[in-house]
Amino acid sequence: MKKWFFAKPGRLRHALNWWPPFLFSGIKITEISADYRYCKVILKDWPGTKNANGTQFGGSLFAMTDPIYSLMLMGLLGKRYFVWDKSAHIDFQKPGTGQVEVECRIDDAFLAAIREHTAGGEKYLPQVVDEIKDAKGNVVATVSRTLYVRLKPAFRPDVAATDS
Hints:
There is one protein chain. This protein is α+β, with helices and mostly antiparallel strands. The chain has one domain: Roll (Thiol Ester Dehydrase, Chain A). It contains seven helices and six strands, in the order αααββααββαββα. The chain has a six-stranded antiparallel β-sheet with strand order 1-2-4-5-6-3. A hairpin with a 4-residue loop joins strand 5 and strand 6. It starts with a helix and ends with a helix. This is DUF4442 domain-containing protein.
């Protein structure tokens, strides 16, 4: 089933848009590039996404990036790697009013660093930082995420063979 979802980014986008934590939080993925290097996520502007002050609920702002980088990397790296979120932090900078969005990107240097740091079977903990912006381009929040990336045991170098 997992292979089927990742075969086409559009499938993954549609599945996530129907995934209850996104669907009921007003979060929508509007775009995933064919090469999994770009993803745009919005938080809709409707009563169900507001807090007591009438601005976007902080938990929903935080959730906008939750599975995104892990899933993008799974699409890019394939079945050879474990990819998880390890930790995350959000820094609220101003109240979010109206629809907000975040754009997530993975470049060649980021992928090269992952492959280099995991080649020997070690875990690697890369960090990504994204800005959630309102319709005027104002930064509403900055989200930092630490990912966990490691080759699965079947794909790690044989340590015993390299020690001899």
